[in-house]
Amino acid sequence: MKKFAMIVAVNLAVVGLGCAACGSQGDAAAGAADAAATADSGVSDAAASDTTVAAGPQLPTDRPILLWSDGEALAQNAPRLPANFDLPDQAVCAKDPTRQYIGEIFKYGINNVQVDWHWAPVVAGPDAKKPTLKQPEFNLAGALTHYNESGDDVLADHPFGLDTNADVKLDADFAYLGRSHKDEGGEGAIHAELEHNIFPRQALGMVPAKGDRTLMRGVWVLDCGHPPYGTEMHPPSFVAFARPSTPETTQAMLLFAPYRSSLLFNPSVELATKLDDDARFADLGTASFPHALVAAVIKAVASKADYVTAHALMVANRFETLHFSVCAPLPRPAGAHLQASWRLTSRSGVTLTAAADDAQGCVHITAVMDQSYKPMPLTYANTPWPWDQLSASAGGQLGASVDVRAEVVKIAKKMGLDPNAPALQADHPPRVDAYAMLELPAGADQDAPTAIQSGVDTQAFPFFGRVKAGWQ
After folding, report:
1. What DSSP string describes 351-363?
2. What are the backbone angles phi and psi of residue 145, rounded to the nearest 5°?
3. What is the pLDDT of residues 41-53, one digit of tens each?
4. 6: three-class secondary structure by DSSP
5. Range with the poorest average pLDDT among 21-30, 65-74, 387-396
6. Most exposed of 38, 113, 372, 450 (fewest Cβ within 10 Å)?
């Protein structure tokens, strides 16, 4: 801990405030060493002081207020693309590109399912039969052209609740990730969705808004629920948003989400949250949702269960090293110097460093996850999904009214199952996985006084924080 505290303290000591007679780097390092002696708690604090800062990564002279601070983000993306990649292959959703996730069951029947995945990987994981497992993640940068919070989603595959929705106009270097998705931004834009209860934006004191600068890292998919299929980042695991709070000051927030659904389902509730058990993916009961749904109906009717249910197998998110910068707005006022502060928090196994760079007007942040990281155990929870709400959601997807319970009863009859089974009755709604909002500690919305707090294992997020960078 002392070694880590020393590293953090040295980084914190370079908070740059311009002055007539700035202190030397040697003075800053000496102050950092003194601070390290009291940093065994895992918390390092440093008030802004007059110091000379070391040069950071070289950024473009017209740099935005939030950006990846080296070429690593692009370099990580490049080898994950297939050779001679041009455009995402619509066939990863279905051979018939007019097919629709779940909705196709009511049109073509349970024995003619083509759309296995609500969000099919553009670049699949190593197991072709389970492409959502260990699928590579991609980085992006851009600006929000739209943000809203959904009032309806297919709750069965949204275990952390309804989505927050963002449309991102991509920077030129990342434009290949975009493909037109109806009217949601056009070519060079991408849609991103992250569930409400895993994105505590109010607790961070910053709800995304149109015009925000953003960085994201996450799975790159085609949304198979809305032909023609368009690309999405669904979900991102890392998000950062920044905006000017004044013409001279940038405020930013950042967060790494701890979990996501594998999009594979199993009838065993015990397997849902066994984050370290890869054997569950090979279990004979594990399947994509359309097939798991049919199996769940058969099981519920045969066993005279009270309700139909299947459980999403959750996985823990991990990340490669992230380097990014939060910068004061341009242009730099004459004679101005950087005024910066930050409050960053991480779980054990994640190391955060931050350094202010007066020359470029930025705070450079690095996040590293090592092999010792362990996710917080996830406590299982579920909730009823009333048949009428399920029907409304399905109707919205299909663009036509549908009575899901009546359709399920029809399917049951065709299969020779008892249509009067308890689980098929109007007062016995299906139950879906529904995890509570992940809480942040008090003060998560603050960006001062400057501090980096490590080893905070009473909360689930690998890391989160707020940053402020301005001119003074």
Report:
1. EEEEEEETTTTEE
2. -100, -10
3. 355 544 333 334 5
4. helix
5. 21-30
6. 372
Q: Any idea what DSSP says for residue 196?
A: G
Assess contact for 452 and 17: CB atoms under 8 A: no
Find all residues with CB under 8 Å of 251, minimum gap 6, and list them: 206, 242, 243, 244, 245, 447, 466, 467, 468
Helices 404-414 & 387-398, crossing angle to 10 degrees?
A: 90
Looking up tokens 């197998």, which residue turns up? 313
Cis peptide before 331 (omega within 30 of 0): yes
Coil vs helix vs strand at 171? coil
C-alpha closest to that of 354 among 366, 372, 341, 338: 366
Residue 180 backbone phi and psi in degrees, to 5: -60, 135
Q: What are the CA-CA distances from residue 464 to residues 46, 241, 256, 264, 467 (Å)?
A: 18, 12, 6, 28, 10
Closest CA to 231 of 124, 115, 88, 77: 88
Strands 451-453 and 338-346: parallel
Nearest 5°: phi and psi at 81? -80, 140
Q: Which of 77, 184, 194 is nearest to 137 (CA)?
A: 77
- Decide: 87 and 187 in contact? Cβ < 8 Å: no
Between CA 254 and CA 233 the distance in angstroms is 17
Split at pLDDT 50, 70, 90, the class of 186 is: low
Q: Spell out the alpha helix ranges (H) of 132-230.
A: none
Q: How many CB atoms lie within 10 A of CB 87?
A: 9
Instruction: In whole angstroms, give the CA distance from residue 171 to residue 175.
Output: 6
CA 448 to CA 245: how far, in whole Å? 15
What secondary structure letter does DSSP report for 422? Answer: G
Residue 329 near residue 248, CB atoms below 8 Å: yes
Q: pLDDT for 349-379, tens place per residue?
A: 999 999 999 999 999 999 999 999 999 999 9
| pLDDT for the residue numbered 84 | 87
CA-based nearest residue to 169, from 154, 158, 181, 157: 181
CA 396 distance to own-chain centroid: 25
Strand partners, 239: 216, 255
Residues 328/361, Cβ–Cβ less than 8 Å: yes
